[in-house]
Amino acid sequence: MKIITVVGARPQFIKAAAVSRALAGRQDCCEVMIHTGQHFDANMSDVFFQELQIPRPAYHLGVGGGTHGQNTGRMLEAIEAVLLEQRPDAVLVYGDTDSTLAGALAASKLHVPVVHVEAGLRSFNMRMPEEINRRLTDHVSSLLLTPNEQGILNLAAEGINGPHVMNVGDVMYDAALHFGAAAEQSSSILEQLQLAPSAYWLATIHRQENTDDPVRLQRIFEGLGRAPVAVVLPLHPRTRKRMTEMAISLPANVNIVEPLGYIDMVMLEKHAALIVTDSGGVQKEAYFHRVPCLTLRDETEWLELLDMGWNRLAPPMGEDFLKAFDVAYGKGAEDRQPYGTGQASQAVIEAILTLRRGQ
């Protein structure tokens, strides 16, 4: 069975690493990978393929750096050409990026089954490009594989249900288990940055809603400036550009570093006292490593993390936003695992094989 995998951004590389590793040992599947180029910076792309041992993409489309409309349109055209050449049995897409939507649209218009891993997530905020991408992708997918039970409920509320909707668990949990141990053995990032475990906060900022609003972005840095310890901020290229354009001032305790590879990032996550982020994936990674998380958004797709007390929302324009940084954060109140047992990748493959069997 020939499967074409479409990736383009950091979270997708991590998810693909887990599934591709499981696919590699099988005789009944052949994977062809397309990298759209959505993350084109070497620190955001090439290093992940090296560290995560992902097969080099058979196609690198080189599409990136434009607007959402420009990127999606160019990707759609280029992916369609690859699909016409390769004639796959299924197209596998991950998450909610422009690459996800372009891959899903190209495949569905050619009547190639679309498999959406991480289906069913909803923020219910249609101003987020990611929310538009994930909703549209779900509605053209032949197989919808959710990471949790909430995804099943969200899809049912939109009239999407049946045997083609499955909770397979979270492939990012698979990756966290595999690479968490590797990070302890191979990463020296704590020594490089002269950090002691549990003596720093880790922050990531990249969402358009935060980076493109100067007031919102300035408030985020004001909040980080209230941290009682040093804050390590691996700086996304878009955030760096916006900070320069807006002349955003940097608090003295915030230490900017270049974007990191996955292994070093995992090491920083595992040993942080608190993670402050607007990333959907990093929220979960914080929980996987049992580190409290403060989320710089008005909402989150991962409601179970709020319910368990491991994650707290801090809307940057909220009245009590700055006070959120003054709280002494401890471990979450509940320690269950809503994302499966670390075998999601195998479940994804078994689900894909049902397409071939016509089940």
Describe it.
- The chain is globular and about 55 Å long.
- The chain is of the alpha/beta class and 359 residues long.
- The strands form 2 sheets. Strands 3-2-1-4-5-6-7 form a 7-stranded parallel sheet, sandwiched between helices. It has a 6-stranded parallel sheet with strand order 10-9-8-11-12-13.
- The protein is built from 15 helices and 13 strands.
- The protein starts with a strand and ends with a helix.
- Helices cover 44% and strands 15% of the residues.
Compact overview of the structure:
This protein is α/β, with parallel strands linked by helices. The protein has helices at about 10-25, 45-50, 70-85, 100-110, 130-140, 150-155, 170-185, 190, 210, 215-225, 235-245, 260-270, 280-290, 305-310, 345-355, and strands at about 1-5, 30-35, 60, 90-95, 115, 145, 165, 200-205, 230-235, 255, 275, 295, 310-315.
Short descriptors:
single chain; 359 residues; alpha/beta; seven-stranded parallel sheet; six-stranded parallel sheet; 15 helices; 44% helix; globular
Per-chain topology:
Elements lengths: L1 E6 L2 H15 L5 E6 L10 H6 L7 E2 L7 H19 L3 E5 L3 H12 L4 E4 L11 H12 L2 E4 L2 H9 L7 E3 L3 H16 L2 H4 L7 E5 L3 H4 L2 H11 L5 E5 L2 H10 L7 E4 L4 H10 L2 E4 L2 H9 L4 E3 L7 H6 L2 E3 L30 H14 L2
Parallel strand pairs: 1-2, 1-4, 2-3, 4-5, 5-6, 6-7, 8-9, 8-11, 9-10, 11-12, 12-13
Helix pairs in contact: 1-7, 1-15, 3-4, 4-5, 7-12, 7-13
Order of neighbouring strands in the sheet with most strands? 3-2-1-4-5-6-7
The low-pLDDT segments are none
| Total beta-strand segments | 13
Order of helices and strands: EHEHEHEHEHEHEHHEHHEHEHEHEHEH
The fraction of residues assigned to DSSP E strands is 15-25%
Mean pLDDT: 92
Give the end-to-end Cα distance, rounded to a whole number of Å.
Answer: 15 Å
The general outline is globular
Radius of gyration: 20 Å
Count of separate DSSP helical elements: 15
Class per helix and strand makeup: alpha/beta
The helical percent reads 40-55%
